[in-house]
Amino acid sequence: MSFEVGEGEVFGFLGPNGAGKTTTISILTTLMLPTNGKAEILGHDVVLEPGMVRKAIGLVPQDLTSDDELTGRENMELKSRLYGVRMSEAQKRIDELLHLVGLVDAQDRIVKTYSGGMKKRLEFANGLVHNPRILFLDEPTLGLDIQTRTSIWEHIRKLRSETNMTIFLTTHYLEEADGLCDRIAIIDHGKIVALDTPTGLKKAVGGDVIEIEVEECGTDVLNLIKSIPGVALIDGMCTGNKARIKVPDANAALPSVLSTFWKSKIDVLNVAIKKPSLDQAFLEYTGRELRDEEKGSTTKPSNGTRRPGRFGRRR
Predict the structure, then answer these.
(1) Distances in Å between the alpha carbon of 208 and those of 105, 167, 184, 205, 276?
(2) Candidate CATH numbers 3.30.70.250, 3.40.720.10, 3.40.366.10, 3.40.50.720; the one for domain 207-275
């Protein structure tokens, strides 16, 4: 695969389980060696100059990494020292970040007393404590309640509006990517299958979706839909008593569709029009089947030993 991310951009990286998202982030953040190809962060090669890369980036991983036996503030002070941030600068930065993530009142509590959402917000603050130029967010809101997810989205939007920080985001919540990202890459089986703005990806789906509910959706209904000019049947079957069709323009096509049903004496119980969504685009590019992580995968973080296989150029 090959792609570039611009300075100050919020770049989304989406794909099914096992597609290669976390592997890619692990390579870009120097946690894994690429088996082939080249990756650069701010002009620094991730293999030849890993120290320079690590100084420039922040990472909020999927897993919680804070020390449960330390307070929230102590965790951030430890992270500051590891990154060589001067104490006077670190204290000011920690104060700002605790306020940003809403943990001022809990900063002196032991982290094991935090809720899951509080721990995730602390991870977010830890990723920013050294003021990185690029922030990697690997599914930062996975498993969180909607209130905490919304709070983290607000933090990301604030970073975007107040700084020129580049943000590289992976998520399974497509509404996050739609609302936050300037551009989105969709990866599947280790290859980028689409790369565009959220609006561009949705337009590429092509047309609106009309969902039609009838009393009984059988072969006769499906054949009737297939006979209507300019209409494409989605999925090729009914779901319950509903059929989903794709048309270039729902407002223009709906009168003709309904008229065809009525002429055939098929009662329509309900009609819903859906505009193209990022969910549709994702399914168009990756398919609709559920997937598990590939068994026996060789793309797990290691001690740096190179393994057979290939990775294309990454930037």
Answers:
(1) 48, 31, 21, 9, 6
(2) 3.30.70.250
